[in-house]
């Protein structure tokens, strides 16, 4: 399975970078009723609540990660990510759970089928 990475941004509006630790798993939930962005995906941490959102702009997402528009079709309504890298303004995470059972990616004009890894 191809790894899917996302950037968490907007942390300054919540708890800053304090809650984030390498290896920590976070819950992401699509938020279609968000008044600012109907593609929004909220990121939460147990016992804390909202800690940020998945980036949805080329200005806020890290190079090599998918934005909300890119990740939305591959994940379920609720999914988990694992913190892999932390910068001063961004948190880069790998999707580790909640990938749809079956989806297609176009890679160099070749259709490649991926399935959810049962290990997650």
Helix and strand content put the structural class at mainly beta
Q: Major β-sheet, in short?
A: 6 strands, antiparallel, barrel
What is the count of structural domains? 1
Termini gap: 12 Å
Report strand order across the widest sheet.
1-4-3-2-5-6
CATH class: Alpha Beta
Which value, in Å, is the CA radius of gyration?
14 Å
Q: Enumerate the spans where pLDDT stays under 50 for 5 or more consecutive residues.
A: 104-120
Shape-level CATH architecture? 2-Layer Sandwich
Helix content: under 10%
Secondary-structure element pattern, one letter each: EEEEHEEEE
Beta-strand content: over 45%
Ordered list of secondary-structure elements with their pairings:
Layout: E1 5-9, E2 25-30, E3 41-45, E4 49-54, H1 68-71, E5 75-86, E6 91-99, E7 102-107, E8 110-115
Antiparallel strand pairs: 1-4, 1-6, 2-3, 2-5, 3-4, 5-6, 7-8
Fold and architecture overview:
It is a single chain. Strand 7 and strand 8 form a beta hairpin. This protein has a 6-stranded antiparallel β-barrel with strand order 1-4-3-2-5-6. It has a two-stranded antiparallel sheet with strand order 7-8. Mean pLDDT is 85; it is low at 104-120. The longest helix has 4 residues, at 68-71. 3% of the residues lie in helices and 46% in strands. The protein has one domain (5-115): Alpha-Beta Plaits. It has one helix at residues 68-71; strands spanning 5-9, 25-30, 41-45, 49-54, 75-86, 91-99, 102-107, 110-115. It has 120 residues and is mainly beta.
């Amino acid at each position: 399975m191809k790894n899917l990475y996302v950037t968490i941004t907007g942390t300054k509006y919540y708890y800053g970078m304090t809650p984030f630790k390498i290896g920590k798993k976070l819950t992401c939930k699509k938020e279609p009723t968000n008044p600012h962005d109907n593609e929004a995906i909220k990121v939460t941490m147990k016992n804390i609540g909202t800690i940020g959102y998945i980036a949805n702009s080329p200005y806020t997402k890290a190079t090599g990660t998918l934005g909300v528009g890119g990740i939305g079709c591959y994940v379920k309504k609720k999914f988990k990510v694992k913190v892999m890298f932390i910068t001063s303004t961004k948190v880069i995470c790998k999707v580790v759970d909640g990938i749809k059972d079956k989806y297609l990616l176009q890679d160099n004009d070749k259709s490649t089928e991926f399935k959810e890894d049962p290990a997650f």
